[in-house]
Specification:
Blueprint: H1 2-17, H2 24-41, H3 47-74, H4 96-120, H5 124-138, H6 152-173, H7 178-201, H8 203-208, H9 214-218, H10 220-245, H11 259-270, H12 278-305
């Protein structure tokens, strides 16, 4: 019985290392990009490519999370009292070298899946994929980590939001259209919002650690206002696409997710301690998840019903 409990605890440690609550930031854009290809371009979906892209994206996201834990530990930014971290090093005693090996192994599997995707579509994607993987490493690795700069939200949004949507769209259609770009912009903004909410939560520790994040540069109150703006622009953007670009009105299903960002902003306004604002982080991530799914579902309703 004891061995079973220990094995279960061990699995939870390794599962927690991937930070599974963040993986929707890689899953949802793949779903959305594929839904756009089906609904807008009337494209028959290649499910082999879809699942290859999905798994590769999630592996890269998980590996990026591991690089984050590795380098935050190496730089002395994480300790057993830190909030919102994987904690496998400082709390569970996992060796940093082990985490790096796992992360690089995930990258290797993602590269194999990328070879399959490129062989089925275009080898130009190899360059795009390698750049995305390099950015995933440099986000917290290298001499000038992106996450410690004011550009973390922009870079993560562009790569994990817009980038994944457009790659998922391209592998199904072998093209990138204006509609696909326009529909990917809310995904870019909301992935950036996840990073901004993380930086708002960590503003005290990041300041002490010498980071120069956007939240630190503009101040906590202004950062919350920027986060609110991210949410507002995302919803208004889809309204504009429905009104001006002729995107299906079913896209307005996204408004079912509105309680999530409202709750996130309320918590950030009312609370300041890192532990107290953790639910706001969850609601921000859920906004990205529900918004992307609802937008994709709206597009699929258009495809199957009209």
């Amino acid at each position: 019985m004891t061995k079973v409990i220990e094995a279960d605890r061990g699995f939870k440690v390794w599962w927690h290392l991937t930070r599974p609550h963040t993986l929707t930031a890689s899953f949802v854009p793949v779903f959305l990009g594929t839904a756009i290809a089906l609904a807008i371009e009337k494209q028959t979906i290649d499910f082999g490519l879809f699942f290859a892209m999905l798994i590769a994206s999630m592996l890269i996201q998980a590996a990026t999370n591991m690089f984050n834990e590795y380098y935050d530990y190496k730089l002395g930014l994480d300790n057993e009292h830190s909030v919102g971290i994987g904690g496998t090093i400082v709390r569970h005693g996992v060796q940093p070298k082990t985490i790096m090996i796992i992360a690089l192994s995930f990258y290797a599997i993602a590269m194999l899946l990328g070879i399959y995707i490129c062989a089925s579509t275009s080898w130009w994607l190899a360059a795009v994929g390698l750049v995305c993987m390099l950015i995933g490493f440099l986000y917290t690795g290298g001499p000038y980590p992106i996450a410690y700069s004011p550009f973390g939200e922009l870079v993560s949004g562009a790569v994990m939001g817009m980038g994944i949507v457009l790659i998922a769209f391209y592998i199904q259609t072998l093209t990138v259209t204006l509609d696909a770009i326009l529909l990917s912009i809310p995904s870019m903004i909301l992935v950036g919002a996840i990073m901004l909410s993380n930086n708002i939560r960590d503003i005290v520790g990041d300041t002490e650690g010498g980071r120069k994040t956007l939240a630190i540069l503009v101040g906590r109150d202004n950062a919350i206002s920027v986060l609110s703006g991210f949410f507002v622009v995302s919803y208004l953007w889809v309204i504009a696409l429905v009104a001006i670009d002729g995107i299906t009105f079913w896209a307005l299903l996204i408004f079912l997710s509105v309680p999530k960002p409202l709750r996130a902003i309320q918590i950030f306004r009312d609370k300041k301690e890192a532990k107290e604002v953790m639910p706001a982080m969850k609601f921000t991530a859920q906004t990205n998840t529900f918004f992307g799914f609802l937008l994709g579902i709206g597009l699929l309703i258009q495809y199957f019903c009209y």
